[in-house]
Amino acid sequence: MHTTVEESIEIAVPVRTAYDQWTQFKNFPRFMSTVQRVDQLSPVMTRWKVKVGPLRREFLAEIVEQEPDSLVAWRTVGRQPWHWGEVSFRSTAADRTVVRVHMKVERRGVMGRMADPSKTTQRVVRHELECFREFIEGLGDASGAWRGAIHHGRVRPAEPEPPRSRVPKWPVG
């Protein structure tokens, strides 16, 4: 059985700043209380270590879609695919962005036996979004950026290389 969670928050930074900071996965433990560690294994693969209350989980997540300033979508992979989702970014003004998280969580194990795990997951996601807002608004600018795009789990270059001129450049002066 699946639980769907959807939360959004408005943040007082430009969409590029919010998106660029979100793509710095290794920094998630600096502002998210449930995330203990994130390793970026490749542009499309990350390893996560999370803790919610007494429950600890480690999992691999594959980024399946990523479009700068717009969207990051993922799914867990491996023995226990247990959630997937997307984070979208929408500019509401030059210095304001709405960040929306949409997740589907597979109910299994202890979490699946809880009376209503969706309420717990909803609270956690809402709290973590609030922490992200405080972090990025306090920082004022992103601590890094990755501007590439991913479609169907494959990386597209960030920007095409400019064509090289065949005309020699002459020294000036």
Keywords:
9 strands, single chain, 173 residues, alpha+beta, globular, 23% helix, 4 helices, Alpha-D-Glucose-1,6-Bisphosphate, Chain A, domain 4, nine-stranded antiparallel sheet
Describe the structure concisely.
The protein is an alpha+beta fold and 173 residues long. It has four helices and nine strands; from the N terminus they run βααββββββααββ.
Written description of the protein model:
Strand 4 and strand 5 form a beta hairpin. The chain has a domain at 2-23 and 64-154: 2-Layer Sandwich (Alpha-D-Glucose-1,6-Bisphosphate, Chain A, domain 4), CATH 3.30.530. The protein is α+β, with helices and mostly antiparallel strands. The chain is globular. Helix content is 23%, strand content 43%. Strands 1, 2, 3, 4, 5, 6, 7, 8 and 9 form a 9-stranded antiparallel sheet that branches.
Order of helices and strands: EHHEEEEEEHHEE
Let me know the number of strands.
9
Average pLDDT number: 85
Tell me the helix content: 10-25%
User: Which architecture name of the domain at 2-23 and 64-154 does CATH use?
Assistant: 2-Layer Sandwich
How many H/I helical runs? 4
Silhouette: globular
Could you give a short account of the major beta sheet? Answer: 9 strands, antiparallel
CATH topology-level fold name of the domain at 2-23 and 64-154? Alpha-D-Glucose-1,6-Bisphosphate, Chain A, domain 4
Radius of gyration (Å): 19 Å
Overall structural class, as computed from helix and strand content, comes to alpha+beta
Distance from N terminus to C terminus (CA atoms, Å) equals 73 Å
Assigned CATH class of the domain at 2-23 and 64-154: Alpha Beta
The oligomeric status of these chains comes to single chain
Residues in β-strands, percent: 35-45%
Low-confidence stretches: none
By CATH's scheme, which homologous superfamily of the domain at 2-23 and 64-154 applies?
START domain
